[in-house]
């Protein structure tokens, strides 16, 4: 995957290409010493600032209904 300042590209079936940033989704977990932030999964941040969830495969996401984008190379969580 070609990262440029944290940004990479995603491509749709119809040929649209957008730039995205992979960001972690963190949740609060309780433990004996209080609470800590734990990374649960990854999310996709668009250039507009919109944050979207990755699909279960960890390589694709939807921006709208029936608008599937796939990350350009082998990205794994």
SSE topology sketch:
Layout: E1 7-12, E2 17-31, E3 34-46, E4 51-53, E5 60-64, E6 67-71
Antiparallel strand pairs: 1-2, 1-6, 2-3, 3-4, 5-6
3D architecture notes:
With 77 residues, this protein is mainly β. It has one domain (7-71). Helix content is 0%, strand content 61%. It has no helices and six strands. The chain has strands at residues 7-12, 17-31, 34-46, 51-53, 60-64, 67-71. It has a six-stranded antiparallel beta sheet with strand order 4-3-2-1-6-5, with no helix packed on it. It is elongated, with a radius of gyration of 14 Å. 8% of the residues are buried. The mean pLDDT is 88.
Structure at a glance:
This protein has 77 residues and is an all-beta fold. The chain is built from no helices and six strands.
**Total separate domains:** 1
Spatially, the strands of the biggest sheet line up as: 4-3-2-1-6-5
What distance separates the N and C termini? 13 Å
Beta-strand share of residues: over 45%
User: How would you sum up the global shape?
Assistant: elongated
Fraction in helix: under 10%
Q: Could you give the order of the helices and strands? A: EEEEEE
Give average pLDDT, whole number: 88
Uncertain segments of ≥5 residues (pLDDT<50)? none
**Contiguous helical run count:** 0
Whole-number radius of gyration? 14 Å
């Amino acid at each position: 995957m070609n990262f440029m300042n944290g940004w990479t590209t995603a491509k749709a079936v119809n040929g649209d290409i957008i730039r995205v940033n992979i960001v972690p989704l963190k949740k609060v977990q309780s433990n004996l010493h209080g609470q800590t932030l734990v990374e649960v999964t990854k999310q996709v941040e668009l250039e507009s600032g919109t944050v979207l969830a990755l699909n279960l495969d960890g390589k694709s996401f939807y921006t709208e209904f029936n608008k599937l984008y796939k990350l350009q190379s082998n990205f794994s969580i």
